[in-house]
Specification:
By secondary structure, the chain is an alpha/beta fold. The protein is 21% helix and 27% strand. It has 2 domains: 268 residues, Alpha-Beta Complex (Spore Coat Polysaccharide Biosynthesis Protein SpsA, Chain A); 113 residues, UDP N-Acetylglucosamine Acyltransferase, domain 1 (3 Solenoid). It contains 10 helices and 29 strands. 45% of the residues are buried.
């Protein structure tokens, strides 16, 4: 993999995840207690043997920059030609933000060319999955492809949110539509479509040529799915790489956590006895920034009901369950649940404090929020809306970073 350069697109606004993305980029949103969403893509790179990585940032990047600086950049040695570099918008081409996925790469084309890669792997920094990119690069080489796209089977209803591919018997692309209203299904299966995962392997010089050509087109959205891929299907060799488990031949785990309900569900799935995403796979570790914190602690065991207990939950380092009860929830670092408080089906970010006797149900609570003694979240949704909290279609209450908590919870 020494001739491979990875480019991680990490500049999306993540507007559908607001208020979680009000002060942070989508790839920096916490996931699974101790991780950030981008950790899964970067871990895939490291585990796949890719040691040259560019992370293209854009909106609200401070939290993401800090996380990468403290948790990732020390892993690789610049002296050995290895790096994880954070690349903010350079505006070297024009004085504007990135106009599309292809434009994001094009505006940094000088940086890419300087590394002289043979292949470029382009990745999104906002999906949850495990994947060996090395196998995909080998597949790309074996098929003598100009571009290879990772492919996943999805339902026809879901396919309207993806780029949808049509392939021949050898997995060569013969058609591609970006987010079609009526997507074409797979042969012999009128309910399933073949979707692009937004993971690309390009021959480097071919990529540079296509980016330069697309940049000259005034009517282009400068996007891989909308413009570049459809324009080269007939003239070049494009392959689909099926993302399936080699043993079971079933689809591998992959989640787009682009909405609050999808994000919530993907997190809570981790509390299952045998979750589809195994965080305890030491052969494919998911790395992150691990601060120096003490282990979690559970205190009090009294017949009066003051008992510190957590069931079917993930409790991160530095957290204390001080006589409260936690059930099917994910607690980030340094969370404190006070006596006789109840936390159920919820996600609490770093530093959240749940006061004595408080109730939290079906909620996502952002960092350092203090829930006053006796308050409740998720019990009366109408009241939560009056407080200014977001309530999703699935009935999940999202509490942003707030000041004057006592005043807000008194409403």
């Amino acid at each position: 993999m020494k001739d491979v350069l990875a480019v991680v697109l990490a500049g999306g606004k993540g507007t559908r995840l607001e208020p979680l993305t009000r002060e942070r980029a989508k790839p920096a949103v916490p996931f699974g207690g101790i991780y950030r969403i981008i950790d899964f893509t970067l871990s895939n790179c490291i585990n796949s043997g890719i040691r040259r990585i560019l992370v293209l940032t854009q909106y609200k990047a401070m939290s993401l920059d800090r996380h990468l600086a403290t948790g990732w950049r020390h892993l690789l040695s610049r002296e050995l030609g290895e790096f994880i570099d954070i690349v903010p918008p350079q505006q070297r081409i024009d004085e504007q933000w990135y106009q599309g996925t292809a434009d994001a790469v094009y505006q940094n084309i000088y940086t890419l060319e300087k590394e002289r890669p043979e292949h470029v792997v382009i990745l999104a920094g906002d999906h949850i999955y495990k994947m060996d990119y090395g196998k995909m690069v080998d597949y790309h080489k074996a098929n003598n492809a100009d571009l290879t796209i990772a492919a996943l089977r999805v339902s026809k209803a879901e396919a309207t949110q993806f780029g949808v591919m049509q392939t021949d018997a050898s997995n060569r692309l013969v058609g591609f539509e970006e987010k079609p209203a009526n997507p074409k299904t797979m042969p012999g299966d009128d309910k399933t479509c073949l979707a692009s995962m937004g993971i690309y392997v390009f021959n480097a010089h071919f990529l540079f040529d296509q980016l330069c050509q697309d940049a000259t087109l005034q009517n282009s959205a400068h996007d891989f799915g909308r413009n570049i891929i459809p324009s080269i299907i007939q003239s070049h060799r494009l392959m689909a790489y099926p993302f399936i488990d080699e043993n079971s031949k079933a689809d591998c785990y992959w989640r787009d956590v682009g909405t609050l309900d999808a994000y919530y569900q993907s997190n809570l799935e981790l509390t299952d006895v045998e979750p589809l995403l195994n965080l305890y796979d030491y052969h494919w570790p998911v790395r992150t920034d691990q601060p120096n914190l003490p282990p979690p602690k559970f205190v009090f065991d009294e017949d009066s009901g003051r008992r510190g207990v957590a069931t079917d939950s993930i409790v991160s380092a530095g957290s204390i369950i001080s006589g409260g009860k936690v059930s099917r929830s994910i607690l980030g670092p340094r969370v404190r649940v006070e006596e006789r408080a109840e936390v159920t089906n919820s996600i609490l970010f770093r530093g959240v404090r749940v006061g004595k006797g408080a109730i939290v149900r079906n909620a996502i609570v952002d960092k350092h929020v203090v829930i006053p003694d006796g308050a409740d979240i998720g019990v009366d949704l109408a009241r939560d809306i009056r407080r200014g909290f977001t309530v999703t279609e699935g009935g999940i209450v999202v509490v942003p970073v707030i000041e004057a908590a006592e005043e807000i919870f008194a409403r």
